[in-house]
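Researcher: We're teaching a course module on how sequence relates to structure. For the next exercise, students receive a sequence and then see the predicted structure as tokens, so they can try to spot secondary structure elements on their own. Here is the exercise chain.
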Amino acid sequence: MDLQEEFLNKLRQTLIESTTFPTNYLYKFIVPNEELKINHLMELFNFQGAVITTKESKTNKYKSFTVDVLSNSVDEIIQKYREVSVIHGIISL
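Model: And here is the predicted structure for the students to work with:
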């Protein structure tokens, strides 16, 4: 099992034990400050009523994203992490 799947399995178990759905879920990501990667991330949360805040790093090489969005299930959260994982260089916190 790779690190991504291990992270998602632990997250799934934690959410099952501690969360009642629907709930607002807070995603946090760090992305290389490249327009294509940022646009891809933004598109993944488009039309979901997400509140997205961003902050650039001191060196302007990276951008952090906090995404607050209503989630209806554990599977919906896990699926979103899988979708963003295709963005090269993204770090999920």
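Model: If you want an answer key for the exercise: Residues 25 and 69 are 6 Å apart (CA to CA). The chain has a mean pLDDT of 95.
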